[in-house]
Design brief:
heterodimer; A: mainly alpha; 10 helices; B: mainly alpha; 0% strand; globular
Chain lengths: 281, 322
């Protein structure tokens, strides 16, 4: 029984992966952040080359900080604001295209269906982001010379990877009950607006500085964004040491863990909703 | 000669790639290369002040203003000739009430805030609530209102006597009117929140960014066939200009190569404020922003004329054979 479920899951993941790459949004998001980063490196041109009066380790730290910053800026914005909306139609499209009744008549459980959709989206997004980041790192290596690959990989895994998994899950699961792509976009955009802007503003009494770094449930995942935006700069001696912006690694870890719990809860709610609707039908 | 011309198409067909894709890729590569070349030629310390860019802005404003006027007169003339062709009820049902409620809710939340407080949201406060929220909601709605990939029965719709462009403009018109209602209600709300509010200016300032963002959302949606592209691109434009307006004024400190563009951004910044530049320049900016919006809508309508492109996402065969 478990083997059958695993085979179904594998099939769904493969199918969903292909579907995401056949639609254009993921491809365009990957290309957009890669091109923006590569253009920034090429435009910076000779200013990236090591000055004679700078020692190698300092130069290495500075180039690493620049590499992470220039990659993280466009990628972070894409993962926070665009990715959830981009994958929102993953489940609603089945109903829009009229294949949902067919899927319901097959011996595929709701849990397998939902998990397959989710993991398929993760695989598609992570491969896209991974390939884009590899290309960006390659261009940095060729243009500016050696930089700390470990730090860059840390950003790729705990920054980009974590937010990609958390926010793509939000996009897929929040729109689970919607009948069409249009409704899915409206619902996910509404949720994002509520959680990113409205609630933090009302709760923090309009002080954006407020407690953003403690808002582990906010889809912006501010602690992760700030960690790779400002901590890396401060470590290289480039940015300010404003304590309101600097985040400890423990808070980043907590944000990822809380985000995973959040996704698990929303997954359970989505599964419950699918089951309730199925029973009613 | 004919054989030579046909050869690339044959190679492309053998590689299972459409000729148009190659043309598009080559066009973008050429544009990128040219852009990169021009940027590399420009001096690093390039800087212009507002007074130096004003004559250019005036010429552009005149051109775009005339274009916008021509479009509006034409649209009014066509509408006057076929007033019975408008299916108001269906369009009103399609537009729905969610956008109006969302926009009014957003205005309410923002009007309660203080945009001048340190670290506050720059778009908060009664004076900016309407012009910040209404254009964004309008743009998202405009992106969703007609996307070829999501339109049920597109082929039947294109075969009907009412052209697709008419359908789009009709829906956009309803959307626009629905948001005008929100603006009027929002102005009353903001007047209560801030008794010193300049009501006339608040009623006018939202118009230009609303038309531009609506046009960007519609253009990108029709061009890409996917509503979420239109919504996200319009959202990004809104985010950049609404949040970073103050940093995009002429003379602000910036970095290369943005300094090549910065002296000109004020002219087409949809969120320029009356206090940012002299009042005459502010109205030049409004005309340019409005003209850009109307021009983009015109381009969108032109795209809708090619039924084959709209249906299959490919260029018309008539166009290829020419």
């Amino acid at each position: 029984m478990a083997q059958v479920a695993l085979n179904q899951l594998r099939g769904m993941i493969l199918y969903e992966f292909r579907m995401h790459w056949r639609r254009r949004p993921l491809l365009i998001m990957t290309l957009a952040f890669t091109l923006i980063t590569v253009a920034a490196v090429l435009i910076a041109g000779d200013s990236l080359l090591k000055p004679n009066d700078l020692d190698v380790s300092t130069y290495n730290r500075v180039v690493t900080a620049y590499a992470i910053f220039t990659t993280w800026m466009p990628l972070g914005i894409g993962l926070v604001f665009i990715l959830p909306v981009m994958v929102a139609d993953t489940i609603p499209l089945d109903r829009q295209h009229g294949v949902r009744d067919l899927l319901d008549s097959l011996p595929v459980s709701r849990a397998v269906y939902l998990t397959g959709k989710l993991i398929g989206t993760w695989v598609a997004v992570l491969i896209g982001v991974g390939v884009g980041l590899f290309f960006c790192a390659l261009v940095w290596r060729l243009r500016a010379g050696a930089f700390d690959v470990g730090k860059f990989a840390e950003m790729a895994i705990f920054g980009a990877g974590a937010i990609a998994v958390l926010n793509s899950s939000l996009g897929v699961l929040l729109a689970v009950g919607q009948p069409s792509r249009r409704r899915a976009i409206v619902v996910v955009t509404g949720f994002l607006t509520l959680f990113i802007f409205v609630l933090p503003l009302l709760m923090n009494n309009w002080d954006l500085r407020g407690s953003f770094n403690n808002e582990t449930l906010n889809p912006i995942r501010i602690p992760i964004i700030n960690y790779f935006m400002f901590n890396v700069q401060a470590e290289a001696g480039l940015g300010s040491n404003n304590p309101a912006l600097l985040v400890s690694a423990a808070v980043v870890r907590d944000t990822i863990l809380v985000g995973l719990v959040e996704i698990a809860v929303i997954w359970a709610l989505a599964w419950g909703w699918l089951r309730w609707r199925g029973d009613r039908a | 000669m004919k054989a030579i011309l046909e050869k690339p198409a044959g190679i492309m067909a053998a590689m299972n790639l459409p000729m148009n894709t190659l043309k598009t890729v080559l066009f973008y590569l050429l544009a990128l290369g040219l852009g990169g070349f021009l940027i590399s030629c420009a001096p690093r310390d390039f800087n212009l002040m507002l007074a130096e860019t004003r004559p250019l802005a005036q010429v552009v404003a005149l051109g775009l203003g005339l274009l916008a006027l021509w479009c509006l007169v034409n649209a009014a003339w066509i509408f006057a000739q076929r007033p019975r062709q408008v299916a108001w009820r269906v369009s009103v049902q399609l537009v729905g009430w969610i956008g109006m409620v969302a926009a009014f809710g957003g205005v309410w939340v923002l009007a309660a805030g203080d945009g001048d407080a340190p670290y506050a949201l720059p778009i908060a406060g009664a004076a900016r609530a309407i012009e910040s929220i209404v254009p964004l909601v309008l743009a998202i709605q405009a992106a969703l209102i007609f996307s070829p990939d999501d339109e049920p029965g597109l082929e039947v719709l294109l075969a009907a006597p009412r052209p697709a462009s008419w359908l789009l403009l009709e829906r956009l018109g309803i959307l626009f009117v629905s948001q005008v209602v929100v603006v009027v209600a929002g102005v009353i709300l903001c007047r209560f929140a801030e008794p010193d509010l300049d009501v006339l200016l608040t009623l006018v300032t939202w118009l230009a960014p609303a038309v531009l963002l609506m046009a960007i959302a519609t253009f990108v949606t029709i061009r890409s066939r996917v509503a979420m592209f239109g919504a996200t691109i319009a959202g990004m434009v809104w985010f950049v200009f609404a949040f970073f307006r103050a940093g995009l004024l002429p003379g602000m400190p910036t970095f290369w190569p943005l300094n090549l563009l910065l002296p000109f951004i004020w002219a087409f910044n949809p969120y320029l404020q009356p206090g940012d530049v002299p009042m005459g320049d502010y109205w030049i900016n409004r005309v340019i922003v409005l003209g850009l919006g109307v021009g983009l809508l015109l381009l969108t309508v032109r795209q809708l004329r090619d039924e084959e492109q709209l249906l299959a996402g490919s260029r018309s065969s008539k166009g290829n054979n020419r």
